[in-house]
From TrEMBL:
The GerMN domain, residue ranges: 86-175
Name listed for the protein in its UniProt record: GerMN domain-containing protein
Signal sequence annotation: 1-23
Domain of life, per lineage: Bacteria
Phylogenetic placement of the source organism: Bacteria, Bacillati, Actinomycetota, Actinomycetes, Propionibacteriales
């Protein structure tokens, strides 16, 4: 084995010598000025800042008043559980339309002091608790306000019906035809208030 290693070293030295490369038996310190530019600088990988993950969000329609009808405005709702999304939609409803939408004549029938919360979410039915505003709005305002709530909340996947309550007790809700019902409300109950449906009535 030692003989083979010695033969290999001799062969390598012979090849290098024949190529004109001077073989030095002892290491030699080089003058840094004689080394080509950049070869002595340590090589490091360029640091790349990890991309910060953007929070996932979905654009859900939230309904506001435009004339005597309801129009939808897209609202960015953070991703989460069905309950989290319902709460986010109710928050967007309570906040009302933005200044640019108000400049276009879009408003809300939900009173400023009315608070909207979720008291339960079972079997596709969300119970929305009303509090904070004891006054009774007009029948038209009530219908539009309830329509805003029902159409907006049922836009959340997993919610098919809405029940309204106040003080822990279910309350009667006005329908489009002026009647009252204590049954859970669906989007179909207020489809006639959607802007496209309302504008088609006079044709």
């Amino acid at each position: 084995m030692r003989a083979r290693r010695a033969l290999l070293v001799v062969t390598v030295l012979t090849v290098l010598t024949s190529c004109g490369v001077t073989v030095q038996r002892q290491p030699q310190t080089l003058d840094p000025s004689s080394v080509p530019y950049g070869l002595l600088e340590p090589r490091t990988r360029p640091s790349v800042a990890p991309a910060s993950p953007s929070p996932r969000a979905a654009a859900l329609p939230v309904y506001f008043v435009d004339g005597d009808a309801l129009t939808e405005l897209p609202s960015r709702v953070p991703d989460g559980s069905t309950l989290d999304r319902v709460r986010a939609v109710l928050h967007a409803l309570s906040a009302g339309p933005g200044s640019s939408e108000r400049a276009r004549g879009i408003s809300t029938a939900i009173p400023d002091r009315l608070r909207l919360g979720v008291s339960s979410l079972r079997g596709g039915t969300a119970t929305v608790a009303l509090s904070g505003d004891p006054r009774d709005p007009s029948a038209e305002e009530s219908t539009l306000a309830v329509g805003q709530i029902v159409l907006s909340v049922t836009s959340v996947v997993g919610v098919d019906r809405v029940r309204l309550s106040r003080g822990g007790q279910a309350i009667d809700a006005p329908l489009v035809d002026g009647s009252l019902t204590s049954a859970p409300l669906t989007a179909a109950d207020y489809d006639a208030l959607r802007q496209s449906a309302a504008s088609g009535k006079g044709r």
